[in-house]
Amino acid sequence: MSEPRESLATLIGAVVALLLQVVVAPNVSLFGAVPNFILAYCLVVAIVRPRTAGLVMPFILGLMFDLMGSSPVGAMSFLLVLATFAASRIFVVVDNGTLFMPLAMLVIMTLVVEMAYGLFLLSSGLEVSLIDAFFFRGLPCALYDVVLGLLMFPIMMRFASAPQRPDMGSLI
Q1: Which one of 2.60.40, 3.40.50, 1.10.1760, 1.25.40 gives the CATH number of domain 3-159?
Q2: Distance CA 10, CA 54 (A)
Q3: What is this structure's pTM?
Q4: How far apart, in whole angstroms, are the C-alpha atoms of residue 103 and residue 69?
Q5: At what angle do helices 37-48 and 3-23 cross, to 10 degrees?
Q6: pLDDT category, 22, cuts 50, 70, 90?
Q7: Is the dihedral of CA 29, 47, 93, 60 positive or negative?
């Protein structure tokens, strides 16, 4: 795929993730845990395209997420920008070509973002206890988001990643 085609696939995926967050997410909550399609999508893009993943898309999608909910405006956009930047830069360093590293990065970053979002909920003055923020909201939502990311990962690898050239080895 060429770069414009990869960018178009990423843009279409962002629109789909936003639509899924608006239409599907409120209707598929399990025990109060609502999936965050936007978080899963932004992290998957940062892992699939670590060298070309930008920070504008996570900021805009995070701002849309904040405006749809009752959380402090800017919290998710701030966390998404930090998480996608960190995930893409760390993944460039630790990528070893196996499937373990992208999945480990997805799990760790999702858990970090959801727990940090729980801290934002605590500090914003909402009547939320520490246990509610971390164990009844953060952890279940993180698990839900990891499952979504695992479903999105092969799709984005197919449509938004650069083609891998076969290794020709050494000529000597």
Answers
A1: 1.10.1760
A2: 11
A3: 0.84
A4: 28
A5: 160
A6: very high
A7: negative
